[in-house]
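Usage

Read records sequentially. Each one opens with the input sequence:
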Amino acid sequence: MVAVRSRFSPSLLPLAHEQHHNGDRYEHQDEQSYDAEQEAHGAVEEEPLPWSGVVLAGTSCTALRMWRAHLHSIHLLLCLHVFLALLCLSAARSALILPDGLQSNQEATLVSSRCCIGHVDVRKVKSIMTMSDDKQVLQERHDSCRVETSDTARYHLQLPEVVETVIHSCEDCVGYSHVDFEPIPSREVTVKILYMLRDLLFPGYFSREKVDPITLRYAVGRTTTTVFDLLAEQIALSVRHDCYRYGRECSDCAAFGHEAALALLEDIPRIRALMATDVRATFDGDPAAASPDEIIFGYPGIQATYVYRLAHRLFELGVPLLPRIMTEHVHGITGIDIHPGASIGEGFVVDHGTGVVVGETVSIGKNVRVYQGVTLGALSLPKGCGDRFRGGVKRHPTIEDEVIIYAGATILGGDVVIGARSVIGGNVWITESVPPDTTVLAEPPRLTYKAMADRP
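and closes with the structure output:
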């Protein structure tokens, strides 16, 4: 008898025994000759076979023949599994290249059966093939990117010629440029100064940090010191720029910069008082305003007015360039164009504001209100007369106290005076003076009314 311990299923033993009796070509056909052969060599106890996990307790060859048959069966099953896997792979590839309708039917058949024979899932096979297709797409994109990069490089090679053309135009003075050794002020720094001055006019409204009675001294001190240094430098650059560029006499620009910056900062309390009257007048005349805070935060008229009042003080001090940089900056934001040379009294209101123009030599009294689209301008000058009228020659109108000018009105000319307490109606054109306490209205247009049925 033979004692057998194996890791294979006992159900396979009858199969191996049957294959032996059916003439397995790997077995000894003559059992007696095999036993005789074993007796000739001597009966010894066999060692455990490493490839089968079988321990033989006797000298019988039945176990050997049985496990040889078992291994042969496993070999046949493996071959069958490989064949079925190749068959499923071929079917999946065919399903992927079918037309849409046929592909869906084929896909349904494959998925329903799942083709799990040999542990091969068609969905996994299709996923592998899709990954292969994605790699092909990525390769095509990579090749396309190489072509695009080559085209970009070809265009970049033309840029040196373009650069030389621009440089040549600067040397030939075809356009305006500032390629020289004289200094020039910075628009960016000037705008920064402008917003820091706003913090001094309205402390706590626009500061990044909270300002309370405890921190007020620190906040104002820090802002004032920073503004003084930056503003003095920009004023000095502006003055030095004019000296170098236009051959003017030296004016000790560094000292002038410090003096002008200090004069503006000393005038902050007066400008704050003027702005308080502007905010109050705006609030009193606008029922839509919920509070003065709303006006300070959001009204473009107040924004344009505080910038004008700061720039006007620098203009009075004789600072070049910077005042106009300031007013034109806010002009681009609000659409309100107030020249820093204009003279405007307290309680000034720009309601709505878009399209308002106030010229350089305009003189405006107290408590004046203007609406959107109002122009206080100059008559057109003859060609070549610009230099003759340059330098503050009066060419814009004078608006006296408590005048209201409605939307779209145009008032032109340096000799025109609009008397106190007058009302100028919308869309009027005035080139002559108006007495005080006068209302000016345009003649009502002739209107034509048509019924809806009369329309073409």
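Summary fields computed downstream for this record:
- The first helix runs from residue 12 to 21.
- The CA atoms of residues 13 and 104 lie 46 Å apart.
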